[in-house]
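User: quick one
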Amino acid sequence: MDTLLQGFMQIANVSTIVWMAIGSIVGIILGALPGLTATMGIALMMPISFRLPTATGIGLLLAVYCGAVSGASIPAILIGIPGNPNAIVTVEDGLRMTKKGKAGQAIGGAVVASFIGGIGSMLALMLFSPLIAKFTLAFGPAEKATLALVGLAIIASVSGDNIWKGLLMGAFGMCLAFLGTDPFSNQLRIPFSKYLATTPLSKGLDLTSTLIGLFGVSEVFIGLKKSFVGGQHVEPVKIDHIFPPFKKILSMWKIILSSLGIGILIGAIPGTGASIAVFMAYNMAKNIAEHSNGKLEKLGTGALEGVFAPEVANNAVTGGALIPTLALGIPGDSSTAVLLGALIIKGVTPGFQLFTTNMSLVYAIFITLLIANIFMALFQLLGVRLYPKVLEVPQQILLPLVLILSFVGAYAVAGQATAVGIYNLGIALVMGLIGYFLKRDGYPIAPIVLGLILGGMFEENFRRAVKLAGGNYLTFFTKPICLLFMALAILSIILPIIAKKRGKR
Amino acid sequence: MTLFRTRKPLPFVFMVVSILYFIYVISLGSSTMIGDEIGGDPGGMMLPLVLSIFMFVASTILFLTDKKPQEAVQNSRGTSEQRLFLLTLIVAILYVAAMRPLGFIITTAMLVFTLIFFYLQGTVVRKDVATWAVGTVATLAVLLALYSIGRVISRYLLLSARQGRIPQWLGSTGVVAGVVLVIVLVLYYLLYKLTRTRFHHERVPVAVSHAFDACMISAITTELIYLVFRQMFLVELVPGLITW
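Assistant: Done. Structure below.
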């Protein structure tokens, strides 16, 4: 009880509430703007979060995360263009509801559904993450090394259309993580060390600047590829009767529960993410509606059920994806990968240690997730008539603003050290260009991020494990948990290949 | 050569990178843990070597299997898009390079103005350069006016609070930033309202209207960034030419 109170005290201040409110609004706006993702929003807000106390900073990032996932439904419902892939299925019934003159109920329904998904997944996070974290108590260096390998293998295998692209990106991310100094001997491991030894690069790539480059700067170059479309023209629609009838919500309990379960489960599997969960939830809801003896409307006809299912699922992913992030240090999707990076930079090490030595912070994170969901619902409902206006901001103005915010973010991480700040700008620009070329050719970025984050952990634990075994590499094959993890890693690579081959047939 | 024409270039780039990385790791030599006299540490070279070999294998497979789609060969970027891409790249490089001598405020305003102006124009052509140059000067003038007013107010509040002429809380960083923010926004709004119709008129060339929009957006964006990061979070932004 004391730790819960301590956790509450960490966020019970005006600064946390104000920053979370700002984060929530920024998240909703970013989510609503087509092309701007939750991951980019979190990456852009990271430098601000570093200037705040740990719990407040994490609260800010969680508010952006929840807001962006939910905000994507606004353009999906009003103009049929999802703000990001999380709302791709919401278009199906959301747009039809708008055409039927029920835009208000569709947006209101999406908000209520997002809130239910967010709160439900938060409860799952509170319940399961300490239990999973307890499991890591038995982990030694060998288990930790193979766990990092599992995380990398899963993310590499499920993100992108080609498994080799994912694996290559994971390996590339690890190579980037190895830049800097050897963790055990302090030997410099950077090219042109004669010239770079005295620069900030000798400590390796700055994680925040790298993430900002990969997710922020690269988007500007990608945006230029698409021809400028100006702002999205939103036909004036009447937005009224925002709250769906309570009776109607109750009648959809099966759809809500199944979407919630799917969202949490998919979110908890590293590398999957909301875009998969929404399709599964929608299909399940379709099935439930068809067998409801006419009690529920048929999906695909402009039914509230068709908005509820994906919106519950995509926000349920937020809490679900945080389960492996906090308990194991393996992120559930690219957004939580960036969140994990922010946690690590803040000196918070996920896993059992976090749950035993810093339980008050864990409680603070749970409470901020609750507040983030409340704010997400509140600000989306309050601004229900204003957010459509955001969609009219043209890309020509948005892209330069994204670029400058990315640069300022990378620079600001250095704080008082201006020379380091300028190096960070260079890193963000170079990584932005690399990110652009990779995205252009369909290479997934999430494995790079995971390689960057887990590369160091993998190397340290791998070398420690072999050293403890007296140089015996077979030590990994003598421990049951390592064997389990290695089997999981191999399966995660082989199964998508088999599934793809079957699909081709 | 046909192989290169039908294949995507990135896997080849990664093949080269992995070979270079392999050579680099070998040349670096292995280092072992401090105090590893009895042995057992695989050394700092092992994992990078394994990764470079893995990257080479993966990129070779991709090079051989990931073919360029036919339409992609024909549908490359248009000239305008190419020019805007190049402009963005050059301006971004110049921003990083010029930050130290010119300072954060000047370079930020110029970057935002340049990009918004040419993006709104839709391309980069020589006839727009004169409008761009005038717009840049106007942007810097508006920004410096807003910045200077903000600085005077900030200094007055900070100094007065320190000397006890006004309550201490009025001199806290958050309150000072908040007061400056409100005053700057009011002034900006008035300026925008007074000048907007002059530049958004059917007789005014489109390029000038775009320059006006870019000027107003870049000036307020830079000032807001300055207020948040310098005055609220105390980030040391390079002063450059602006020393006051």
